[in-house]
Amino acid sequence: MDVLGADKQYVRSLFNAIAYRYDLLNHLLSGGADLYWRRKAVECLRADAPRTILDIATGTGDFALAVLELNPERVVGVDIAETMLELGREKLRRRGAQDRVTFQQGDAELLAFADGSFDAAIVAFGVRNFEHLDQGLREMRRVLKPGGRVVILEFSRPKTFPFRQIYLAYFRTLLPLIGRLVSGHTGAYTYLPDTVMRFPEGPAFLEQLRASGFDELREERLTFGIATIYTGRRGPVPSSRT
Question: DSSP string covering 1-40, please?
Fold first, then answer.
């Protein structure tokens, strides 16, 4: 198994602890760019017009709500942290979207859905928290219909000098300080940069998607490489790796 993220119990407790400041911190720490990034990710699905969409690691449901502009019949959001989902359900009530979006607690590495249940699977800023990345990706493939689309939005590391150096210095020092002051949690925004630095971005992540059974793979770097959209389709069953 490819061990990437922290233990599931730690991840659950961490995101439950920061749930009430999670949206504010996302917008603050990205300078509002996370809204633009989600809109770009939604556009990757438009041509497919998916009727059923699974949002994995949905958090408080921003991505699940964003894809409603595609007029799907059903969106299901899954997250390991129940407090995040409670806040997401409140968003649904405020927007009158309860009949189109449902949230349920669940493990991304053991999804409670039958094979081929969804036309599309989406994840925003969640795959780097999978304890076992390869298992989570295989589960994502399993619940997709043949030819189903996957869209993954994730933080990445800028490559251009001097923006890379400036951004990484901010990410490692100022971001944890701001996160700690706003959220009141000492570990959450040290954990965030740690996971981003360890995540196998770019070609390395595309290769993991390929090995997990996806093809037609693409990546689009956003905002000087701070974030990346990865897309692909459910391909044939991958051969076993030795």
Answer: --B-S--HHHHHHHHHHHHHHHHHHHHHHTTTHHHHHHHH
